[in-house]
């Protein structure tokens, strides 16, 4: 019996830079990371999306940015 994964999600970090503000929990600096995610089905690209993630450099908490 052979199990083959036909769906895959790949994430790649495009860049990281300092974001304005400080962490509300510990007061540390906030970093912004641009991440590109790609969904693939049988090695064919289906969907590309670029996201910006925010996190604290001291306590490593991830923040949710509301539009």
Structure summary:
The protein has 67 residues and is an all-beta fold. Helix content is 0%, strand content 66%.
Provide the helix percentage.
under 10%
| SS class | mainly beta
Rg from C-alpha positions? 16 Å
Count all strands and give the number. Answer: 4
Give the overall shape: elongated
Protein name: Methionyl-tRNA synthetase
Question: What characteristics describe this protein?
Answer:
mainly beta; four-stranded antiparallel β-sheet; elongated; Methionyl-tRNA synthetase
Provide a descriptive summary of the structure in words:
With 67 residues, the protein is mostly beta strands. It has one domain. Helix content is 0%, strand content 66%. It has no helices and four strands. Strands 1-2-3-4 form a four-stranded antiparallel β-sheet, with no helix packed on it. It is elongated, with a radius of gyration of 16 Å. The termini are far apart. 0% of the residues are buried.
Blueprint of the fold:
Elements lengths: L6 E16 L6 E13 L2 E13 L5 E2 L4
Antiparallel strand pairs: 1-2, 2-3, 3-4
């Amino acid at each position: 019996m052979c199990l083959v994964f036909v769906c895959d999600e790949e994430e790649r970090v495009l860049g990281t830079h300092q974001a304005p503000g400080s962490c509300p929990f510990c007061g540390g600096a906030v970093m912004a990371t641009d991440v590109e995610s790609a969904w693939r089905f049988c090695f064919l690209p289906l969907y590309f999306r670029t996201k910006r993630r925010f996190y604290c450099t001291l306590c490593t908490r991830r923040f949710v940015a509301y539009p």
